[in-house]
Amino acid sequence: MENLKTTVECLRDLVAFHSERINGYEALLNRLTPDEQHLTTLFEAFIKQSINMRQELLDIGANWGLPETQLVVGGRFGLAWSVVKAVFSSKMPSYSLDKCKSGENALLIAYHSVEGTDGLQPALRLVINRQKREVIAARDWIAHFGRLQGQPVEQPLAAVS
């Protein structure tokens, strides 16, 4: 029973992370400057990615008999979720790609935290690991676009397996 409770909390967190990522990229799309319009396709791809990942997580919950309404509230990793929300909703002036890098890094930290949770259902752990690798690839695209815009090259965060 405790394992199911832990799994539900992790599903809730990941669903919340992706909802916030979707909202964040939609907001960034609306604030792109004329010099940043080339990022539209990238941001739309990340929105679609999070929609698909969130739906996959909701489907896993449904397979375990959990209604969607039970999975759309925050769980135990609320602090990590709040970091993702703060990064994407910040009104501080910065380049859109800077916010994206910060948001993706916060999301990866959240995925790593959830993935390392004791008592997580093994099938869910596999999905989380795969989704985390997809987020790492998204972060790599952001770094690529940053280099194209002449932003300084940063040392990447260590990829967590």
TrEMBL record:
Give the source's domain of life in one word: Bacteria
Instruction: Return the InterPro entries for the record.
Output: Ferritin-like (IPR012347)
Protein name, per record: DUF2383 domain-containing protein
List the source organism: Parapedobacter luteus
